[in-house]
Amino acid sequence: MSKILFLAGSNSSTSINHKLVSFAATHIPNHNTEIIKLTDYDLPMFGVDLEREKGYPVNLKMLNNKIQESDALVISVNEHNGNISAYFKNTLDWLSRLDRKFLEGKKVLLMSTSNGKRGAASALEYTKNVLPRFGANVVESFSIPSYSENFSEQKNTITNEILLLGFIDVIQNFVHQIEI
């Protein structure tokens, strides 16, 4: 049984990406799943002067420990102006300073969603390209465009049948990858 860590790269209290990773966690049976909020690991804005003067924040070490204890991760990224949020970028900056290969040996399912028609595709693409630099093996990715039209929060499901079938396929492929 693998330990899978779920998180969203958003600091919004109403994050639709957090709702998406929470939904994904319900579709992975027979594994130890844990959903966290990055806001529980608050980090200051990264800067080399701050790092030199104060070292690594305790919250950073706690977050890194969660990642190290996991076998795989499911990460959903939000998008701000065609890129990942400054919040998530800051988290990646801190983690990579503590340990450049903080995702070494971790299989990752990347997801994204937004209310736009592209479903945060630019942020997803950026993240797919950058996480391998930190050792990640991105084995699957999935995006839900037009979140409010394609996801029912009341029913906690993807309402677009084609998207739901694609999501299930991606989840099954991800689970297969972490089991081999």
UniProtKB/TrEMBL annotation:
Transmembrane domains' residue ranges: none
A GO cellular component entry from the record: cytosol
GO molecular function: FMN binding; oxidoreductase activity
NADPH-dependent FMN reductase-like domain sequence ranges: 3-144
Record-linked InterPro entries: Flavoprotein-like_sf, FMN_Rdtase-like_dom, NAD(P)H-dep_reductase
Coiled coil regions, renumbered to chain: none
Protein name: NAD(P)H-dependent oxidoreductase
